[in-house]
Amino acid sequence: MRLPELLRTAAFRLALWQGLLFLLVAAVLAGIVGWQVHMFGRDQLRAAIRADTQRLLEERDEPDRGGLRDEIAERLRAGGTEHTLIALLDAHGKRLTGNLPVSIDLLGLAPGWHTVDMPHGYYADDGDDASAALWLQRLPDGGMLVVGRDRTGLNQLDETLASAFAIASGAALLLALIGGLLLGRSYLRRVRVVGASAQRIMDGDLAARIPARAQGGDEFDLLARQLNAMLARIQSLMESMRQVSNDIAHDLRTPLTHLRQRMETATRATDAQALRAALAQGQHDIDQVLSTFSAMLSIARIEARERRAGFGVVDLSVLLSDLAADYAPVAEERGQRLATRIAAGIAVLGDRRLLQQLFANLIENAMTHSPVHTEIVLNLTSGGERHFLAVVADRGPGIPAAERTAVFKRFYRLDRSRATPGSGLGLALVQAIAELHGFHCAIEDNAPGTRVLLRGARAAPAGSGDLS
User: Fold this and answer.
1) Could you tell me what percent of the chain has a pLDDT over 90?
2) Hey, where are the domains in the chain?
3) pLDDT (mean) for 256-274
4) Sorting pLDDT into bands at 50, 70 and 90, what band is 466?
5) Cis peptide leading into residue 371 (ω within 30°)
6) pTM higher than 0.70
């Protein structure tokens, strides 16, 4: 990987910004700590100077200038004051004694604290910027006592703190840059994997997926799993589209061929009755084609999730009870019986009209494939406070196990059903509505016959649970 490419990665920029933010925070912290340490050192230095001053005033033999001057001279002769500065001035500002360099002008300085620069080379170990802190105290006779100490230790402490901060900042910035490069390399490698998978998909390999850990992982794994789910959905839709195109070409060819034959018959008709019969048959074929397209459009709208915005709480128990009341007389006319076992108080979140269409399709499908003197079952039971189970069962010929998944595809019809009216879109519509509502639809053997099971989440806690 080229360095310029790594420097342009978001991970490197993020690490760099974090490093700069760390430096800013560290600078503020170092400033606060340095200032506190400096003030502590300055206070300690001033406390030592005040103590020296107090001892000089307490140890003088006489309360006049001469006694204090002798005390200062005695101290200077005794030694040990190489970093202590003392000066005694009379009322006119004349120096009487002390070791304060004469180059330091004390005239005009008011009593109190002052910082002065020391002459170059005064202290052998102070370098070029030696300075001293002085305390000037007015004496009762008008003279001035000056006591001070050099600031070498305080200056060195400030320089040590500044150097430590500079070294730590440089190391932190270097580590941030190295970390950014490593992170950028890792992120860039992951992005290239995603890009390679995307390129394979653009080249036509819709089965390509982005590598991701099945559980856990980082944000790339989470994104990869979501993208893979999206790709699986896209692949399913593309395959469905190709299948639909093939099925349309196959299943609509028959009614369109019939329609052409009806038109040819109509053109050859010699009387009005034959013409009307041919037109009526042609109208029936057109209605069959329009019905097929209407069902396909309904499935397309449902799969596009256009109706989810209109969802509301639907009392599924009441809905199925109403459907049972509507279809029970129809079943009796066909020599069948509709048996129901519907638990009360089960509500779901969904579209009432679509749910009604879903169960109507299942009931009509069961009635179509059930022989006379058989029972069709419509059950709705509670699966706890959060789920429900709906079952529509018949005693027909059943669906082979190998085809129980395929029957949900568009235009798919069993071999024995090809001679019966229908487009093969009924169960496809059921599956589309179920997926829109988040229900799971499955087919089982009813020995004999077929059981269609719908499982889903409830919108509210169960009611009394009584069966009607």
Assistant:
1) 19
2) 11-156, 209-251, 258-304, 308-457
3) 77
4) very low
5) no
6) no
Backbone angles phi, psi at 97, to 5 degrees: -165, 170
Mind listing the pLDDT tens digit for each residue in 68-91?
A: 888 888 888 876 656 788 988 888
For residue 296, give every residue at least 6 positions away whose Cβ sits within 8 Å of its Cβ, in sequence order, or none. Answer: 244, 248, 410, 425
| Residue given tokens 């989810």 in the structure block | 308
3-state secondary structure the chain: CCHHHHHCCHHHHHHHHHHHHHHHHHHHHHHHHHHHHHHHHHHHHHHHHHHHHHHHHHHCCCCCHHHHHHHHHHHHHHCCCCCEEEEEECCCCCEEEECCCCCCCCCCCCCEEEEEECCCCCCCCCCCCCEEEEEEEECCCCCEEEEEEECHHHHHHHHHHHHHHHHHHHHHHHHHHHHHHHHHHHHHHHHHHHHHHHHHHHCCCCCCCCCCCCCCCCHHHHHHHHHHHHHHHHHHHHHHHHHHHHHHHHHCHHHHHHHHHHHHHHHHCCCHHHHHHHHHHHHHHHHHHHHHHHHHHHHHHHHCCCCHHHCEEEEHHHHHHHHHHHHHHHHHHCCCEEEEEEECCCEEEECHHHHHHHHHHHHHHHHHHCCCCCEEEEEEEECCCCEEEEEEECCCCCCCHHHCCHHHCCCCCCHHHCCCCCCCCHHHHHHHHHHHHCCEEEEEECCCCEEEEEEEECCCCCCCCCEC
Q: Is the pLDDT of residue 440 over 60?
A: yes
- Other CB atoms within 10 A of residue 433 CB: 27
pLDDT band, very low/low/confident/very high, at 320 (cuts 50, 70, 90): very high
Is the four-CA dihedral 162, 166, 171, 176 of positive or negative sign?
positive
Q: How many residues does the chain have?
A: 468
The residue with tokens 């490093």 is 19
pLDDT confidence of 208, banded at 50, 70, 90?
A: confident
Percent of the chain with pLDDT over 70: 81
CA Rg, the chain, in Å?
Answer: 49
* Topology given in CATH for the domain delimited by 11-156: Beta-Lactamase (3.30.450)
Largest Cα–Cα distance in the chain? 156
Question: 308-457 belongs to which CATH class?
Answer: alpha beta
Distance of CA 144 to the CA centre of its chain: 73
The residues near 192 (Cβ < 8 Å, ≥ 6 apart) are: none
Sorted by sequence, the CB contacts under 8 Å of residue 92 that are 6+ apart come out as none
Q: What is the distance between the alpha carbons of residues 268 and 266, in angstroms, rounded to a whole number?
A: 5
**Mean residue pLDDT across the chain:** 80
Q: Give the per-residue pLDDT at 106.
A: 84
